[in-house]
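Progress against Task 2.4 (sequence-to-structure conversion) is shown through the following example record, which the project officer requested during the mid-term review.
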Amino acid sequence: MSHSMPQLLLIWLAFLVFDSQPAAGKPRVLRMGYEHSPPVQLVDARHRISGPVFDALSQAAARRGIQLQWVFCPQGPDKSLLGGSADLWPLMADLPERREHFRFSPPYMRTKYWVMTRKSGNLRDLAMSPDFTVVLPPGKLAQVMASRYRVYAPHARLIKTDHSTAAVSMVCRGEADATLIAQGAGEIFALRQKECSGNSPRLHALPGAELWFGIGFRKDDRGAAQAARLLHGELLQMYAFGVYPGLRGLCDAGLAAAPGFTPDCGEVRYPRMLKWLRD
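Structure tokens generated for the chain above:
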């Protein structure tokens, strides 16, 4: 039986399409990127991850039959996903600035940003000082929060640091007037800083600084999108049946989960932090 040239071309194209599909019984292994992000994501000296987010998503993936490969990506979610180092990111803030390239599962965690100052008083009044200095911790989220904080401190001088603990230390030592810290991780840093033991830093709620976190992925990755939705759905099921392993860790961190998981437990777990609040 002979074939014309167009028929042979169609057969060859069909073979290429078929050959590029994953073999039956061998589902795609999805790379879940991570970085050190205490207290919910902890990375040791050998780049091994632990913490409530890792525990919860690992169990959700096992229950759904999703194969995850956890990959250390210190460059953060944006560069890792766009550069192809990771397919998924376990905890990624849904920001308008990111929606051109990324999509997100429904959120399963939320947090707030605070302004920590060495002096007490109204935040707007403190920021009116002509030499008011704000030290910024590293990361994209801190930069986004700083742009929002500019509304309340338009004349503030901004200084960047390489680590959140350094930012808190500078405020406690009087080398800066304020810094931005995330609820949960930031208070842990502040409580542990020796420089802060002799004074009482004040925390001011930053209006409009509530962030929602879901599982992030590139907007053109359909496989990762499906996996993110399945993982989020499994987290809901795990919480409904009382097997959500990361829940206690979130509460201990002073964080709150998104609707459908748990109410805000920060007031119960963080009484010392709340004593600092001066709005």
